[in-house]
Amino acid sequence: MKTTRLEAFSDAVIAIIITIMVLELKVPHGATLDVLWSLFPVFLSYVLSFVYLGIYWNNHHHMIHTASRVTGPILWANLHLLFWLSLVPFVTGWMGENHFAPETAGVYGVVMLMCAIAYWILQEMIIAAEGSGSLLKRAIGGDWKGKLSPILYAAAIAVAFLFHWQWVAMSLYVLVALIWLVPDRRIERMLVAREE
Amino acid sequence: MKTTRLEAFSDAVIAIIITIMVLELKVPHGATLDVLWSLFPVFLSYVLSFVYLGIYWNNHHHMIHTASRVTGPILWANLHLLFWLSLVPFVTGWMGENHFAPETAGVYGVVMLMCAIAYWILQEMIIAAEGSGSLLKRAIGGDWKGKLSPILYAAAIAVAFLFHWQWVAMSLYVLVALIWLVPDRRIERMLVAREE
Amino acid sequence: MKTTRLEAFSDAVIAIIITIMVLELKVPHGATLDVLWSLFPVFLSYVLSFVYLGIYWNNHHHMIHTASRVTGPILWANLHLLFWLSLVPFVTGWMGENHFAPETAGVYGVVMLMCAIAYWILQEMIIAAEGSGSLLKRAIGGDWKGKLSPILYAAAIAVAFLFHWQWVAMSLYVLVALIWLVPDRRIERMLVAREE
Amino acid sequence: MKTTRLEAFSDAVIAIIITIMVLELKVPHGATLDVLWSLFPVFLSYVLSFVYLGIYWNNHHHMIHTASRVTGPILWANLHLLFWLSLVPFVTGWMGENHFAPETAGVYGVVMLMCAIAYWILQEMIIAAEGSGSLLKRAIGGDWKGKLSPILYAAAIAVAFLFHWQWVAMSLYVLVALIWLVPDRRIERMLVAREE
After folding, report:
1. What does the angle CA D160 – CA D166 – CA D169 come to, to the nearest 5 degrees?
2. Mutation choice for A interface testing from B13, B39, B91, B114 by most A CBs within 10 A
């Protein structure tokens, strides 16, 4: 299997996830702005998850590009990542409808943590398949973003479940998104270097 | 990232948005034409939004084609546009189910205005990335359509919220759609010229 | 715009329509075969529409292939066809849930008739764009299938609404599907001939 | 029609099926872990079906690659397979919501059996089109997986309906998934051999 096909399938799944997520924004009964306002928490959680999925789409693309071929472990690690990403609309809707109630914010973090772990596993599978001196390995370097994110997720999950400080948890989720929004030029730079 | 991939992802998202929008047309209880007739406003709003999304799909394609590469700002401006487009099924369903009630017509205009602004931002990002003498800049020229549309949307929003003249607002939305339906040959002409 | 892109977009929309149609098959309450049996009419109408959409997907592909370029009229005639196809899940669900009640069977036929007309318009737009001696024109020849289908749809609509003979209408819909299922080698043959 | 297009369409449909399946995981009312826990059976059935669809996606790809052209029978055998796969979200949701009640587990097996039969028919159509000495025929060899799976499905269906031993049935479904998860290198090896 070629990497382009894995990429096309993953792109399609992410495009569908990002779009069906809006179906959780159910059309309300009543035609006033008050009624619409009651959906604001669902809207906010939708915005956050939309940004997360945009980041995953973008980084996933760059990562897959460093692979020269698709092995069985890469294929299943990729499906494993798509599985956890597919749960994002569910936890987004649950958290939004319950106005970021502590346990819903905690479960949101659990799914995000699983996505991060699945992403890390996929990264390791690609590095393993490419052998020592893998382009991806050099590109990610110390991978401080990849190491920091799970710690922040875990902290957010802990404060949400233990202290019911859901706003601290939400702030941490926003923080992780911001960290990744800052463009990661490492892989891009390496790809350009390889071409030259 | 190549422009073809940004285009494929955007196409997929727009194809999904345009298609899941029909899910707002809920199968009614009762098997008579009377029951079906009660869905006519939802159907009408669906037609309008279908045409809008068709226009966005078409113009988006031509615009992306003028870009020679995808920068970070272009990528996120594109996701920003897709975000607002993804809200179209929601406002379409809300407006239709409430028979074009003033506030729903106003909110429909707000989302349309945000789509137009997001489209304009994406346009500017592409022009900025291409540098002075950008093909897109020359192609859009005075961009009277791009300048007129937000004004018409703003007017529609105002009359919907302030005077509750929802039919004036709806007429303005139809007018904007008609303006864009008239084919915009500028970009196409420039692309043909470039190839020659 | 290239025909490949129009084809890719149309394929995506048809793939989504064919798949979300199954969402009308709502998971029932109750875990017995009796409960499942009550969904049998919905299942039957799903099968019929699945076959219809498969036929449209296949023939649409062959037709687009005969076009050498995408003009504005072709683009909008294509979106017009996709619009009517997008209503298929709705009428399928409505007809199935109401056990093929006469008026639902009649409305199903109306949407099918509109799809057929939209397909015919698209065909004419491609022939017009290709000029005299168009490959498509020669390929479809007398186009007896294209001429017979609307007549059969119209007959089915009439008997459904006027006499409430919904089973005659359904038989006519099955008949049209069977007519088209018999492979139409005309276009394929012409394409092969052109390549040679 | 080229095999790449059949593949792209099938990929899109499978990507949509795998993703809309998560819509059966309905956002619950209530913001506690208890409420979430009640969805655990639905989650479990989702995991099982996700793995099945991942396996079908992967094997389908390899199988289509052995075909050199798409005949009418291949096209319709492929749509027939997609039809049964499209029912997977429905039976997955039904089984999950009813906590693997015997009859729901039996019906799940029936759909899985039909998918397996449809896959086998598609395989035979490709072999028939390729003629004697078909690459696919040599690649699948004795096809013990393809022969064993329907037997295991049939056994699961029988114990589910006759003895209400739904957990035996579920174990058999998991067993079939595991058998296929072990990578099937036959086709891949043949494709590599052909290229050399």
Report:
1. 75
2. B13
Give the three-state DSSP class for B84. helix
Amino acid at A46: Y
Pairwise CA distance, residues A24 & A6, whole Å: 28
On chain A, the residues whose CB falls within 8 A of the CB of D54 are 76, 79
What are B26-45's pLDDT values in tens digits? 999 898 999 999 999 999 99
Q: What is the mean pLDDT of each run of 10 residues along chain D (196 residues)?
A: 84 92 90 91 95 93 84 91 96 95 96 96 91 76 84 96 94 93 68 68
pLDDT in tens, A88-122: 999 999 999 999 999 999 999 999 999 999 999 99
Tens of pLDDT, residues A157-192: 999 999 999 999 999 999 999 988 876 666 666 667
Look at the block and give the residue holding tokens 């990507």.
D15
Q: Quote ipTM for the complex.
A: 0.90
Whether the predicted pLDDT of A47 surpasses 90: yes
| CA distance linking residue B39 with residue C87, whole number of Å | 13
Please report where in the chains the tokens 């001696």 appear, as a residue: C133
**pTM of the entire structure?**
0.91
DSSP string, B30-71: S-SHHHHHTTHHHHHHHHHHHHHHHHHHHHHHHHHHT-SS--
The first and second tokens of residue C159, run together, are 């008997």
Task: Give C87-125 pLDDT, tens digit per residue.
Answer: 999 999 999 999 999 999 999 999 999 999 999 999 999
Extract the tokens encoding C72: 């504005």
Amino acid D132: pLDDT: 72
Distance CA D194, CA D196 (A): 5
Q: Residue B63 in contact with residue A46, Cβ under 8 Å?
A: no
Chains that touch A (3 or more CB pairs under 8 A): B, D
Q: Which residues of C touch D (CB under 8 A)?
A: 8, 11-12, 15-16, 18-20, 22-23, 25, 27-28, 30-33, 36, 47, 50, 54, 57-58, 61-62, 181, 183
Which chain B residue shows the shortest CA-CA distance from C90?
A: B27
Cα–Cα distances in Å, from C182 out to C116, C173, D49?
A: 17, 15, 34
Contact B107 A36 (CB under 8 A): yes
Given a contact cutoff of 8 angstroms between Cβ atoms, the answer to whether B116 and B66 are in contact is no
Enumerate residues 6+ apart whose C-beta is below 8 A from B124: none
Residues A113/A153, Cβ–Cβ less than 8 Å: yes
For residue D108, the one-letter residue type is: Y
Helices (H), A21-39: 33-37
Whole-number Å distance between alpha carbons of A95 and A9: 28
Taking only the tens of pLDDT, chain B with its 196 residues reads 678 888 889 999 999 999 999 988 999 989 899 999 999 999 999 999 999 999 999 889 888 888 888 888 899 999 999 999 999 999 999 999 999 999 999 999 999 999 999 999 999 999 888 887 777 777 777 778 888 999 999 999 999 999 999 999 999 999 999 988 876 666 666 666 766 6
Q: Are A14 and A85 in contact (CB under 8 A)?
A: yes
Element (H, E) at D159: helix D144-162
